[in-house]
Amino acid sequence: MNTTLLFLALLAQSLDPADIHKPLANDWPTYSGDYSGQRYSKLTQITPANVKHLTLAWTTRITAGPGNAGGGGRFGGFGGPPTIIGGEGTGEMAANPFGGTSIKASVLQVDGVLYFSTPDNAWAADARDGHVLWHYFWKTKGGTHIGNRGLAMWRNRLYMETPDDYLVCLDAKSGKELWHVPIADFNRQYFSTMAPVIIDNHVIIGTGNDLDAPGYVQARDPETGAVQWTFYTVPQKKGDPGLESWGTLEGARVGAGNVWIPGAYDPETKLYIFGTGNPSPSYTNPKSRDGDNLYTCSLVAIHVDTGKMAWYYQLNPHDTHDWDSSETPILADGDFKGKRRKMALHADRNGYFYVVDRVTGEHLLTSKFSDTVNWVKEINAKGQTIRDVSKDSTVGGSLVSPNNYGATNWPPAAYSPDTGLFYVHQNDTYAMYYLTETDPRGAMGLGGKDEQLVAAVGSYLTAIDYKTGRIAWRHKYPSATGGGFGGGPGALTTASKLLFAGDINGNLVAHDAVTGKILWHSRIGQVSNAPQTYSLDGHQYLIAAAGDTLFAFYLQ
After folding, report:
1. Cβ-contact 212, 254 below 8 angstroms
2. 48 preceded by cis ω (within 30°)?
3. What gap in Å lies between CA 395 and CA 367, rounded to an integer?
4. Is the pLDDT of residue 6 over 60?
5. Spatial CA neighbour of 474 closest among 421, 542, 401, 406
6. Strand 532-536 relative to strand 264-266: parallel, antiparallel, unpaired?
7. CA dist 287 to 83, 212, 245, 257, 320, Å?
8. Pairing state of beta strands 491-494 and 40-41?
9. How many CB atoms lie within 10 A of CB 1?
10. In angstroms, rounded to a whole number, what is the distance separating the alpha carbons of residues 24 and 144?
11. E-state strands within 64-196
12. Which candidate, 135, 116, 156, 132, places its Cα nearest to that of 60?
């Protein structure tokens, strides 16, 4: 790497929180690029006319764990800087408890430096050639290492959640650990995978687990990590709002509603809007969770300075299939039935698309985006999807669509204000749900059922018209079996009316955002995070990860 470029990169590694308020353009300073969740970039150098000329700029392959960082940059050379080691574990845990390294995180790009993560690991790399600048490794005590969604940046500091429930603060220039603080009780088997979000002087984090415990979102002080406020997603004491929607206080207090994906933020109202996970127990129906189970499977808006709830909209009352509503909502302004609206758009794991007023939480629209979905008895007056109880897990088995993965999942959707379309990965599947625990007291967490995938009908990239809920177009990913499962890793739109996504066959694909027509693709391997874009030195870069390798493309 050129020493002058290295010096400039090290000199410039700082982010003013006010910069995150700007529309997404040259940099990518937070999980969704900006606060709206749209993943819509104003960059226009890459167009439908020239996208076919995209060429590989560089690749970087990283190595997790306490050894060498890897990531020689350019085209995957070896070597790299030493690894900085922190953490409270003994070092006995494997560096990759789930086997292999996969970058699922959003990649921050600030002042020519990329910051990204996997569970227990963080890296900084030069955005021009991919050369690794530093690598940090956290010695874990254990926990679920299913993924890490990314880092947050505040001035010259970076923040990362760990699977064993710590918030770690790093110096952005050197990767040196500045401090770490616990964010959940590891002994209760919490695990923390969310990318923190910086809003002014708040570090917003979330956590949860798949057993019986309450989910919550917190604000932390960026200087010290001290708690500023905590919002529990399920009632914790007598008198708490929503308690009437549970069978017992004891059931509510351990009712889950986990927060494991970043939300969106509206600077005008100062409301942080996020999705919550499923209730617990997930598949059985003990008396302890009789009712709708607020505020699980909901969109919740809280005042960012106080943590007080402003409104909620429950998408899926009394969920019985582990269909989290954790997906990042998308904030958009537009016309809706002749009136200008400030909206929150959400495609749910349960197969339905929702539009609500993001100022008041008023329901505006509910529509089905997956044709195979069969679990809904009715859409009530509030626009909520009410389940058919015969589609709960049963001893003899219930045929349900979608399967547990859902019609979509956590990988981020995108929205283009130019087309008015909402873009989401869609999976059409059927599964048999068998009840294996008939004790009326239910089962802990995800226990009590067995699931068998019956059919994977198809995997798609789908464009939804938010005004009507109708499908504008749907592109089916080709598959040798005619079906597909697992969907894609997320989407990106740009002001040149391009749409980027990964398919199920290992391709990074550029679509015409208006029609869905494929304009370019490159086979890089199973794409593991949502595509992103940034501009540097006159080049617009397109980046995406496939497992342990980060790929960058540009117009040469």
Report:
1. yes
2. no
3. 31
4. no
5. 421
6. unpaired
7. 51, 15, 12, 18, 14
8. parallel
9. 16
10. 32
11. 83-87, 108-110, 113-118, 121-126, 132-139, 152-154, 157-161, 166-171, 177-182
12. 132
CA atoms within 13 A on the CB side of 216: 21
Q: What does residue 207 show for φ and ψ, rounded to 5 degrees? A: -160, 175
Q: Which residues pair with 160 in a beta bridge?
A: 168
Strand order in the sheet with 54-61: 54-61, 549-555, 539-546, 532-536
Give dist(CA 12, CA 133) in Å, integer: 13
Strand order in the sheet with 197-199: 197-199, 202-207, 216-220, 227-232
Other CB atoms within 10 Å distance of the CB of residue 389: 13
Strands laid side by side in the 157-161 sheet = 152-154, 157-161, 166-171, 177-182
Q: Which two tokens stand for residue 301?
A: 């808006």
pLDDT at 70: 55
Q: Is the peptide bond before 286 cis (omega within 30 degrees of 0)?
A: no
Answer for the pair 97, 543: CB distance below 8 angstroms, yes or no.
no
Listed range (225-239, 374-388, 455-469, 477-491) with the worst mean pLDDT:
477-491
Query: What residue spans of 330-375 are helical by DSSP H?
Result: none
Distance from the first to the final alpha carbon of the chain: 19
Q: Which tens digits make up the pLDDT trace of 221-276?
A: 999 999 999 999 999 999 999 999 999 999 999 999 999 999 999 999 999 999 99
Nearest partner of 319 among 356, 358, 346, 293, judged by Cα: 293
Residue 387 sits at φ, ψ, to 5 deg, of -75, 150
What confidence score (pLDDT) does residue 74 get? Answer: 61
Tokens of 328: 């990042």
- Do the beta carbons of residue 510 and residue 518 sit within 8 Å? yes
Has residue 198 got a pLDDT over 70?
yes
By the 8 A CB rule, do 121 and 167 touch?
no
The rounded distance, in Å, linking the Cα atoms of 295 and 230 is: 15
Residue 422: both structure tokens together? 């909402």
CA distance to 41, 151, 168, 283, per residue, from 193 (Å): 25, 10, 12, 23
Distance CA 73, CA 195 (A): 25
Alpha helices, DSSP H, located in 191-286: 249-253
For tokens 């001893």, what's the residue? 395
For residues 345 and 352, is the Cβ–Cβ distance under 8 A? no
Helices (H) then strands (E): counts for the chain? 2, 37
What CA–CA distance (Å, rounded) separates 157 from 401?
Answer: 44
CB 463 within 8 A of CB 473: yes
CA angle 259, 427, 260 (to 5 degrees): 10
Q: Is 47's pLDDT higher than 80?
A: yes
Tokens, residue 309: 């709830």
Angle at 141 between CA 135 and CA 146, to 5 degrees: 70
Put simply, whether the predicted model's pTM sits higher than 0.85 gets the answer yes
Check whether the bond before 295 is cis (ω within 30° of 0): yes
Phi first, then psi, for residue 514 (nearest 5°) are -80, -45
Residue listed under structure tokens 């019986």? 212
